[in-house]
Amino acid sequence: MIKVENVNKIFPIAGGESFHALKDINIEIPGGCLSILKGRSGSGKTTLMNILGALDRPTSGSVFFDDKNITGLSDAERDLLRRKEIGFVFQSVALIPMMTAYENVEFSLRLAGFEGDRKARAEEALRLVGLAGRAGHLPQEMSGGEQQRVAIARAIAHRPKVLFADEPTAELDTNTGLHVVKIFKDLVASEGITVVMTTHDTGLMEIGDAVFELEDGEIING
């Protein structure tokens, strides 16, 4: 689904120095699976995810998304790719507080230019994450785990090919975190979606179909 060839990412820092965040990364993310990018804070996993999801560009190297080299795409083309084919779930759920769960999901469909029945798909997305009965609730009326599940529903509603989740369980207790990851596994099976998530939680590693471990910007296992 995603192929990374010789990707490097270098950030300039004060004093004319630079920080080599990613070093010659070569991996293949399989389609229709849950892949995990693991590593300690500062290992480079979020930087790599941002490049995979077309949020950032590598300093050198190439990224292929569904056999298409996205490295040289224009900003407008990258925006369209993200809007149509990619979903994102972040550690901070970033739900709109004045909107109900249903309204948050339906609004995301409008932003994505979804051409089907938005009402039916928003309801289906909430059902897929087990929140059909909470559609009319505001974020502040929901638990942290429920809010994260709304964020997942919002991210998958437009039927993206790939869902990127950056530390989606970091603010959740262990049981709730495991439930969220089980939802990802269920979505892989029911929606045919590819899920890529970052985590430093060793208890979640065994759940992934593929695991890539980063240390100091390099792949050391995977």
CATH fold field value = Rossmann fold
User: Based on the structure given, which CATH architecture is correct?
Assistant: 3-Layer(aba) Sandwich
Helical stretch count?
6
Question: Could you tell me the strand content as a percent range?
Answer: 25-35%
Number of domains: 1
The coarse overall form would be globular
The biggest beta sheet, please?
6 strands, mixed
Broad CATH class? Alpha Beta
CA-based gyration radius: 17 Å
Helix percent band: 25-40%
By CATH, the superfamily comes out as P-loop containing nucleotide triphosphate hydrolases
Give the overall average pLDDT. Answer: 92
Separation of termini?
Answer: 16 Å
Strand order across the biggest sheet? Answer: 6-7-8-3-9-10
Low-confidence stretches: none
SSE arrangement, N to C: EEEHEEHEHHHEHEEE
Q: What's the total number of strands?
A: 10
Structural class, by secondary structure, is: alpha/beta
List keywords for this structure.
222 residues; alpha/beta; Rossmann fold; six-stranded mixed β-sheet; four-stranded antiparallel β-sheet; 6 helices; 32% helix; globular
How do you describe this structure in short?
The protein has 222 residues and is of the alpha/beta class. The chain has helices spanning 45-52, 75-85, 101-111, 118-128, 144-156, 174-191; strands spanning 2-12, 18-29, 34-38, 60-65, 68-69, 86-89, 162-166, 194-199, 210-215, 218-221. The protein contains 6 helices and 10 strands; from the N terminus they run βββαββαβαααβαβββ.
Describe this structure as you would to a colleague.
This protein has helices at 45-52, 75-85, 101-111, 118-128, 144-156, 174-191; strands spanning 2-12, 18-29, 34-38, 60-65, 68-69, 86-89, 162-166, 194-199, 210-215, 218-221. The protein has a single domain (32-54, 74-221), classed as 3-Layer(aba) Sandwich (Rossmann fold). The chain has 222 residues and is of the alpha/beta class. It has a six-stranded mixed sheet with strand order 6-7-8-3-9-10, with helices on both faces. Strands 2-1-4-5 form a four-stranded antiparallel sheet, covered by helices on one side. It is built from six helices and ten strands, in the order βββαββαβαααβαβββ.
